[in-house]
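Quick entry between incubations.
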Amino acid sequence: MEANFFDRVYQIVKQIPPGKVTSYGAIAKALGAARSARMVGWAMNAAHNLEDVPAHRVVNRKGLLTGKHHFDGTNLMQQLLESEGITVVDNQIVDFEKHFWQPDISEL
DNA sequence: AAGGTGACCGGCC
DNA sequence: TGGCCGGCCACCT
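Done. Structure below.
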C-alpha cells in the first residue's frame, strides 16, 4: 500500500459520516501537518475525481464551499450537502461548527 | 533538478 | 469573516 500523503487524505475523507463536514486544517492536523492544509486542498483536487472520496464534505475553516468551482456544476456541491441535511446559504454552511466532524486518525 | 503552483491557515491591521 | 501577507509541503512540467 502506498501510504502517500494523498492516500492519507482520502482515507480520512472517506471516513466522514453523512451529514457531517470537516475542514482542510482539521485533516491536515490529523495527518500531523497542520500547516500543510494547502496540500490537503491539492489532494482534494485529485480526490474529487474519485467517487470514494466525498470531497463535497470538505470545506475551509469558514465553512465556505471554496472548492465548489472544481465540481461539475456550480451548485452541485451545495446540493449534495443539502441532500445530507446540511444547510448551505451563499456558498457557506450554516451552523458549520454543529456539523463539524473531527477526523480521527486513530481509526486508521 | 528546480521552479511554479495550489479547493489553506493563522496572524495582523 | 473585512483584507493582506508569509509559511509550509507535495505534485507537475
